[in-house]
Write a structure and sequence with these properties.
Radius of gyration of chain A: 22 Å
Structural class of chain B: mainly alpha
CATH topology of the largest domain in chain A: Rossmann fold
Structural class of chain A: alpha/beta
Distance between the termini of chain A: 35 Å
CATH class of the largest domain in chain A: Alpha Beta
Number of helices of chain A: 10
Bound molecules: adenosine-5'-diphosphate, magnesium ion
Number of domains of chain A: 3
Order of helices and strands of chain B: HEEHHHHHHHH
CATH architecture of the largest domain in chain A: 3-Layer(aba) Sandwich
Strand content of chain A: 25-35%
Helix content of chain B: over 70%
Oligomer: heterodimer
Shape of chain A: globular
Order of helices and strands of chain A: EEEHEEHEHHHEHEHEEHEHEEEH
Chain lengths: 295, 266
């Protein structure tokens, strides 16, 4: 049984098609990174999975429950960590956790709260109101709140968007621990590095559908090749190099002040000596497939 | 086996008690952080009104209404004022803020709770609170000389049911308006007129025919009559009044759920 199974799912908002014939299968026990630029339809997909949005058409199954009819029962075994912090700020850390333990019908609320405090490393702050916490602590609490009932499946919607690098690293550690416990994770992100570090498999989402999927190394091999050469120089020389590379069937993309020739191992003679040649990356794949600059 | 057992794979039903209690426990946790101010104002307001209207008017203009000392007439009527101001307004503003500024409902609906349970819990909580605060003016009036009566024991129930209706009204409005300042229209068009033609400060039968008809469909007026029934003696028509309040609560409950579903589920 797959934890998540979506077939030909469509979701429109008036004239906007947010999800456009989406097929997605997430086997149990893996962390799937849903990597896509802003507006790709990642959050809409997450909301479809929790029954907070209703698809126009398509088949949706989560943990073997049919959506939207059985969405409430499916949510019982799912943990959701939202993109926006929606903690109760005036209430204590432990009450925030206890409320959700009750909503999830956890039999022993006290034990569940203790365990979640451990995950968030917030035992010492359990009696403090949330608005006294630092940004990093709030994020850890938000994550732990979604895990208070030990869900089989966790949805993380851009878990580190807009955070300081230090807080981001902290959260990556927690997500890594969650993965190690064998929980199935669907994590949306538009940070390449986040997907590279945490995802067993990456599905690249663009304009409401999955345009490519595989392990990061497979995707790189398939779409980018082995090496990428970053060529620096005056604009007219770069334009010339670019035209020449493209005429040989190579993919070229802008990379800041430089251009990046992807699959440069096939560009013999074209890459100047002062170019920086590096291993092809998931970022190369992302930019080639979506046409968007990566963050 | 950990203490946090995986739930058995049963199907969740509609209007589950655990979901409603969970949402209410969130309200209780928040209430613990602000109950002092709310309670202070709900006690001070009827006191101030009673002193100003009851003592002020009865000393100069009115002595009694239908044989009831004016201060007792106003004091019993103030129960309805306390109920509408502790139910319609908190539910309008509270729902709006939780939904659009704090994203609280997004968090709750990601848990195994649906819109019907969420709205029901919010209404029950406001009604429980308002049912309690509604009794304060009655207690204050007793302190000012109103004789206690057994019939008064039903006052919390009357307040609770009326408050259910007005909290449903508030939730429905919060789900309907586009911006928070549109509550000005709701207050001016509904809340203030309902509060003024409830028979709190002056008897309805002195008003023109049109207003009297309006008063009959005003739940607050029915509440005022029921509270006075408790203090001065019930009549058979009070059964109809109570049925009217139950119907009012039932209708706003369903409308509130319908409007919130439109807002919360894309
Ligand atoms: N409730 C909504 N109403 C109208 N448009 C929406 C709504 N939610 C999302 N959209 C639109 O759907 C598209 C996909 O959005 P979203 O799923 O949030 O993308 P992502 O999370 O990948 O950034 C965007 O064009 C967005 O503006
Ligand atoms: Mg998003």
């Amino acid at each position: 049984m797959a934890a998540i199974e979506l077939r030909d799912v469509v979701k429109t908002f008036g004239p906007i098609t947010a999800v456009d014939g989406l097929d997605l299968e997430v086997p149990e026990g893996i962390c799937l990174g849903l990597l896509g630029p802003n507006g790709a339809g990642k959050s809409t997909t997450m909301r479809l999975l929790t029954g907070q949005a209703i698809a126009d058409s398509g088949v949706l199954r989560v943990l073997d429950y049919e959506l939207p009819a059985e969405a409430k029962t499916a949510r019982w075994q799912m943990g959701v960590v939202p993109q926006l912090d929606n903690l109760d700020v005036d209430v204590t850390v432990e009450d925030n956790l206890a409320i959700f333990a009750r909503l999830y019908r956890v039999p022993d609320v006290g034990a569940a709260v203790d365990k979640a405090l451990g995950i968030a490393r917030l035992h010492e702050r359990r009696h403090d109101a949330v608005d006294e916490l630092s940004g990093g602590m709030r994020r850890r609490l938000l994550l732990a709140r979604g895990l208070v009932h030990e869900p089989r499946l966790v949805l993380l919607d851009e878990p580190t968007v807009g955070l300081d690098p230090q807080i981001r690293t902290e959260l990556w550690t927690l997500i890594g621990e969650l993965k190690a416990r064998g929980t199935t994770i669907l994590m949306s992100t538009h940070y390449i590095e986040e997907a590279e570090r945490l995802a067993d498999e990456v599905a690249v989402m663009h304009q409401g559908r999955i345009i490519s999927r595989g392990r990061p190394a497979e995707l790189i091999g398939e779409h980018a090749g082995r090496f990428t050469a970053e060529v620096y120089g005056p604009p007219d020389r770069l334009a010339e190099t670019r035209a020449e590379a493209e005429s040989r069937g190579l993919s070229v993309r802008p990379a800041g002040p430089a251009i990046a020739i992807v699959g440069s191992e096939r560009a013999d003679g074209l890459v100047p000596d002062d170019a920086v040649v590096r291993a092809a990356s998931l970022e190369d794949v992302f930019v080639l497939l979506t046409g968007e600059e990566a963050d | 086996m950990s203490a946090v057992a995986t739930p058995a794979p049963r199907r969740l039903r509609r209007l589950e008690r655990a979901a409603i209690a969970g949402v209410m426990s969130r309200e209780v946790a928040n209430f613990r952080t602000y109950w002092k101010g709310t309670t202070f104002s709900s006690v001070m307001e009827p006191l101030v009104y009673l002193l100003a209207f009851g003592l002020g008017l009865s000393a100069t203009l009115v002595d009694e209404v239908n044989g009831v000392p004016y201060i007792q007439f106003v004091g019993t009527g103030m129960v309805a004022t306390a109920v509408i101001f502790s139910s319609a307004l908190p539910s309008m503003f509270g729902t709006f803020v939780k939904h659009r500024f704090q994203n609280t409902y997004d968090a709750i609906l990601a848990a195994p709770v649906d819109v019907e349970e969420l709205v029901s819990a919010e209404m029950l909580w406001i009604a429980a609170r308002s049912g309690t605060y509604g009794c304060v003016p009655l207690l204050v009036t007793i302190a000012f000389g109103l004789d206690p009566a057994w019939g008064m024991l039903l006052t919390p129930l009357f307040c609770f049911v009326t408050a259910l209706g007005f909290s449903g009204f508030g939730v429905a409005m919060a789900a309907t308006v586009a911006k928070i300042d549109q509550f000005n229209y709701v207050t001016a068009l509904f809340v203030t007129p309902l509060f003024l033609v409830a028979g709190t400060f002056f008897p309805i039968d002195g008003l023109p025919q049109g207003f009297q008809v309006l008063a009959q469909v005003n739940p607050l007026h029915q509440l005022v009559e029921l509270v006075r029934g408790g203090a001065f003696g019930y009549e058979w028509a009070d059964l109809l009044r109570f049925a009217f309040l139950v119907a009012f609560a039932a209708i706003t409950w369903r409308v509130a759920i319908h409007q919130m579903r439109k807002r919360l589920i894309d």
